[in-house]
Amino acid sequence: MSGSRRCSRTACARTAVNTLTYVYADQTAVLGPLATFAEPHAYDLCEIHSDRLSAPRGWEVLRLAPDPAAQGPSDDDLLALADAVREAGRPAPPPPAVSSLADETGREVTRRGHLRVLTTD
């Protein structure tokens, strides 16, 4: 899978930089920074098509500028990555011990975690 998404406009092979969504109830077209994931009801647009965007008559176009401070990984992203690496490096816990007991009727019971197996006579 490619790391960059393409413009949603027909026959445009440029890289998408913005995401367009429609809020039908408010008759608003919202053009903002490229969404993290491709959504089925959103359109990814390249710089040229983003600049040329117009909305239907009576609709408003809301252009959201990206926050320069939000660009790149945040401290939370880096901490989450470090936690994931630590978790992956931990040794796997030993499998739960299998114990044999006798139930009320005297039949042998085998337990593995929260499951219990009764033997039939």
Structure description:
The protein is an alpha+beta fold and 121 residues long. It has a domain at 18-67. 17% of the residues lie in helices and 26% in strands. It has helices at 47-51, 75-89; strands spanning 18-23, 28-33, 43-45, 60-63, 99-102, 108-112, 115-118. The strands form two sheets. Strands 3-1-2-4 form a four-stranded mixed sheet. Strands 5-6-7 form a three-stranded antiparallel sheet, with no helix packed on it. A hairpin with a 4-residue loop joins strand 1 (18-23) and strand 2 (28-33).
Question: Any chance you could write out the topology, listing elements then pairs?
Answer:
Layout: E1 18-23, E2 28-33, E3 43-45, H1 47-51, E4 60-63, H2 75-89, E5 99-102, E6 108-112, E7 115-118
Parallel strand pairs: 2-4
Antiparallel strand pairs: 1-2, 1-3, 5-6, 6-7
The radius of gyration over CA amounts to 28 Å
Largest sheet: 4 strands, mixed
What's the rounded overall pLDDT mean?
A: 81
**Total of DSSP H or I helical runs spanning 4+ residues:** 2
The N- and C-terminal alpha carbons lie at a distance of 57 Å
Shape: elongated
Task: Report the uncertain regions.
Answer: none
Overall structural class, as computed from helix and strand content, comes to alpha+beta
SS elements, strand count: 7
Helix content: 10-25%
Question: What is the H/E string?
Answer: EEEHEHEEE
- Sequence of strands across the biggest β-sheet: 3-1-2-4
Strand-residue fraction? 25-35%
